[in-house]
């Protein structure tokens, strides 16, 4: 057996962090997942035998080439797709179909354009039976948390891309999901706003009890955000690696970590 290309970065600190994560209870568990789409009268396999467990409060990033099934995987975890075989559980409870234990954020924001920021955040709360008054108070707290208090009564079209994405995130989080599924949420943002949103997300994630399953095609983003990176290949989508990310989160501009960062990125590039 050959040594793992990143073995030299596998310090005791990283080992220790990983052991601590693996000792937490499972949060999102996918087992034996098979998914095909019908195509020209025959079935095309998109996901083949996916097994993966994210532990409580873990930040998982999913990378892989276009068409490898990342969005399909997120959608079926969210309960928005059927599948031939497989089991999905959240906190050890098998789920089928959508539920409030999973929140989802898309690249396209998917805010309700006819509702104000406040009403967008309140929507799910009221839907789940909360009174208008409590929902409004709760929504305003979330809006404060991401610094949008001045925009509570604005409409989505009056906001920048980064602001819309902040609303999409708090709208999902307000429903207190156990797992937040994010499908390329920052891909439409310019680099400056993307970095700002990444920092926002890490800040939020540190302060609440949530497991994040974050899809991106940006390897640097994955290295920056994730505890672990799930790497998929295409045709059919299969897991080729689950990579523990070095600590502390390295960024290209942090020159003292650049060697480690580049080694991690080069390794991921060799896989995708
Ligand atoms: P990714 O997000 O990794 O780019 P997707 O999950 O969007 O990949 O798609 C994986 C594969 O499944 C692609 O080949 C895509 O064309 C196919 N696919 C996705 N959704 C559908 C659908 N609703 N019907 C048929 N094929 C689909
Ligand atoms: Mg996709």
Task: Describe the structure concisely.
This protein is 35% helix and 25% strand. With 272 residues, the protein is an alpha/beta fold.
Describe the structure.
- This is ABC transporter ATP-binding protein.
- InterPro entries: AAA+_ATPase, ABC_transporter-like_ATP-bd, ABC_transporter-like_CS, ABC_transporter_ATP-bind, P-loop_NTPase.
- GO terms for molecular function: ATP binding.
- Belongs to the ABC transporter superfamily.
- Keywords: ATP-binding, Nucleotide-binding, Transport.
- The strands form 2 sheets. Strands 6-7-8-3-9-10 form a 6-stranded mixed sheet, sandwiched between helices.
- It has 8 helices and 10 strands.
- Helices cover 35% and strands 25% of the residues.
- It has 272 residues and is α/β, with parallel strands linked by helices.
- The radius of gyration is 19 Å and the shape is globular.
- It starts with 11 loop residues before the first helix and ends with a helix.
- Strand 4 and strand 5 form a beta hairpin.
- The model has no long low-confidence stretch (mean pLDDT 92).
- Bound molecules: adenosine-5'-diphosphate and magnesium ion (MG).
- Magnesium ion (MG) binds next to helix 2.
- Tell me which ligands are bound: adenosine-5'-diphosphate, magnesium ion
Structural class: alpha/beta
User: Strand percentage, roughly?
Assistant: 25-35%
Approximately how much helix is present in the residues? 25-40%
Q: Which strand order does the major sheet show? A: 6-7-8-3-9-10
Rounded Rg: 19 Å
Give the CA-CA distance, first to last residue: 22 Å
Globular, elongated, flat, extended or rod-shaped: what is the shape? globular
């Amino acid at each position: 057996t050959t040594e793992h290309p990143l073995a030299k970065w596998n310090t005791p600190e990283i080992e220790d962090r990983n052991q601590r994560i693996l000792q937490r209870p499972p949060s999102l568990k996918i087992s034996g997942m098979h998914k095909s789409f019908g195509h020209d009268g025959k079935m095309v396999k998109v996901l083949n035998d996916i097994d993966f467990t994210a532990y409580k409060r873990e930040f998982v990033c999913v990378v892989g080439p276009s068409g490898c099934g990342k969005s399909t995987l997120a959608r079926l975890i969210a309960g928005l797709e059927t599948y031939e075989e497989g089991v999905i559980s959240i906190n050890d409870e098998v789920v089928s179909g959508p539920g409030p234990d999973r929140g989802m954020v898309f690249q396209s924001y998917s805010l309700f354009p006819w509702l104000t920021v406040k009403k967008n955040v309140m929507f799910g709360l009221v839907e789940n039976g909360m009174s208008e008054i409590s929902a409004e108070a709760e929504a305003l707290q979330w809006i404060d948390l991401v610094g949008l208090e001045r925009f509570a009564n604005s409409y989505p079209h009056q906001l920048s891309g980064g602001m819309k994405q902040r609303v999409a995130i708090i709208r999902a989080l307000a429903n207190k999901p156990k797992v937040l599924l994010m499908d390329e949420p920052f891909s439409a943002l310019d680099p400056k706003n993307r970095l700002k949103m990444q920092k926002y997300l890490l800040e939020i994630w540190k302060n609440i009890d949530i497991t994040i399953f974050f899809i991106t095609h940006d390897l640097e983003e994955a290295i920056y955000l994730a505890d672990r990176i799930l790497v998929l290949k295409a045709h059919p989508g299969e897991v080729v690696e689950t990579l523990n990310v070095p600590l502390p989160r390295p960024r290209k501009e942090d020159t003292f970590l650049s060697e480690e960062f580049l080694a991690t990125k080069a390794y991921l590039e060799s896989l995708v």
